Amino acid sequence: MQVGRTIKPALALIILLLLLHIAGARVGEGMRVVPAQEILDKIERGEPVEYYHVIVEGDLDLSNLDLPKRHVNRTLDEIEYFGLSENALIVSSWIIIGDSTINGNISFGNAIFSNLVGFSGSAFNGTAYFGGSAFNGTADFSGSAFNGGADFGGSAFNGYASFRGSAFNGYASFRGSDFNSDASFRGSDFNGTAYFRDSDFNGNTYLGESNFNGNAYFGESDFNGNASFRESNFNGTAYFGESDFNSDASFRGSDFNGGANFGESDFNNSDFSSAQFNRPVTFDDANFSNFTSFQSSRFKEDALFEGTVFDGTLFLNRAKYDRLYIRWKNIRELGYDDAAYLTLLENFKKLGYVEDYDACYYEYRRLHRDQSWSGKYHAMHPWEEWLRKRIDLGLDAFYGYGKKPILPLIWSAATILFFGLIWRKAGVDGRRGKGQGIFERYGLREAHSRRRSGTEEIHALLGAVLFSATLFLSGTRLFVDPPALPALQGWFAAHAQGFFIAERVLGALFSILFFLAISGTVVR
Predict the structure, then answer these.
(1) 374 has which bridge partners?
(2) Does residue 124 belong to any structural domain of this protein?
(3) Strand 87-91 to 69-71 pairing
(4) d(CA 334, CA 400)
């Protein structure tokens, strides 16, 4: 029994090894081995290179070939940083090595490829170096696996560039590259660090559904066509600082599991809907023009928008966040949604941004008045809505919903002046009737002539205004007592009591509104 127990695991191990050997044989079955030198000889002679389902053994190095050269104007940075020469090799052959395995290193850098370059579905088991090259035709690396480092730094893709569904299992460098036509990285996996810094994307760029499992650097890049990172996963740091998105930029449904930095970047139309930021994210000093959406996005940690300007409409519908460091003055328009406004107000209160809270609250109340308060989803009757909106309009006009204390002061001054003109028309000038003593205290003297000079008429008008101010302030009985009602004649005599009461009531109203606004803004 003990011997049987020992033999059975050993037998199972032998069977497993045989199965693995058979599986490996099937993978290589039918794949012809091609020496690297065979391919290099064709390139040197300018012949087409076309191989499918082969194994390339050896290094593919263009530097030792006798190829024509062309002088290329390069910057000092390109020469020093990328190690490039001012004389680039001209490769006239079209090169297709599809669904193949390349076991050596590839050195196709500092070259000008005049025709198609295609490695679709191939596996690069060594280093793939294409730095400083120009692809004037289509560059097709779709479905490829770069198991060593992949370096395309300083390259120019002048035709369509496809890396769709590729896997970069080492580092991937596209730093300083120019994509002058459409470029697709859709569904690619970047399992090492991905460098796209200083790159120019002049066509449409598709990086949607990609996985960045290392750090991703896109800083100081220019996206002049549409840029799609939709439903991508950034598992390391995602750096897009100082980049220009001059057309539509979509990060919709993407997950940022490492830190994300979009500081000082410029966006045209941008969509971060349903994106999830699991670590702190920075948009400091960025500029968003036109449409910007963070609808249904989730910020699990701090989101920094200090100095960020939204020149277009910002949508925060159903967005969730704990602290959003954003200033109201930098938001030109917030897409209306009750929950979005209320959440942002709570955020301002939590951060202590009291002025931002006041301005946002006023805008919310103003826009809320324009919405329907009755109908299918509301319990309010249309007549009640009509009445309450008229009241709401008055609250806006008279004291800015408690956020503009200057408004009741303006209304108070206008009321005093208006009633002052009425009282002057009624004959109040500080010298006649039971109110005479009040005006004498203000230094107004009785004129001995029925015809007054211009100065005396101004004094009389000031007397009426002072009477009006005294009457207005007496509405609260906090400052002064009401003055005596002057003796009037004619039509004003019959309505003087009404004017008297009306001005006192308005004085009480605007005083209360002023103190409410002061307590809600200045005093808190």
Answers:
(1) 380
(2) yes
(3) antiparallel
(4) 19
DSSP labels, 360-372: HHHHHHHHHHTS-
User: Residue 498 is inside which H or E element, if any?
Assistant: helix 491-521
Can you tell me the distance from the alpha carbon of 49 to that of 116, in angstroms, rounded to the nearest whole number?
10
- From the centroid of its chain, how far is CA 445? 68
Which range of residues forms the domain containing residue 85?
31-158
Q: What is the pLDDT at residue 83? A: 64
Largest CA distance in the chain: 141
Per residue in 381-426, pLDDT (tens digit) is: 888 889 999 999 999 999 999 999 999 999 999 999 999 999 988 8
Model confidence at 97, pLDDT cuts 50, 70, 90, reads very high
Q: Is the pTM of this model over 0.85?
A: no
**Cβ–Cβ < 8 Å for 184, 157:** no
Looking at residue 479, its pLDDT comes to 63
Report yes or no: 64 and 37 within 8 Å, Cβ to Cβ. Answer: no
Task: Tell me the backbone φ, ψ of residue 179, rounded to 5 degrees.
Answer: -105, 95
Within a domain: 331? no
pLDDT digits (tens, 9 = 90+) for 65-87: 999 999 887 666 666 666 666 78
15 and 69 together in one domain: no
Does 516 share its domain with 416? yes
Spatial contact of 221 and 242, defined as CB atoms under 8 Å apart? no
Q: Does some domain include residue 289?
A: no
Exposure string of 214-223, with b = 16+ CB inside 10 Å and e = fewer, is bbbbbbbbbb
Is the domain of 19 the same as that of 59? no
**What domain count does the chain have?**
3
Determine the Cα–Cα distance for residues 489 and 357; give it in Å rounded to an integer. 53
Residues 60, 5 share a domain = no
CA 222 vs CA 187, 200, 218, 395, 499: distances in Å: 21, 5, 9, 48, 69
Q: Which two tokens stand for residue 524?
A: 């808190």
- Concatenated DSSP letters for 506-524? HHHHHHHHHHHHHHHHT--
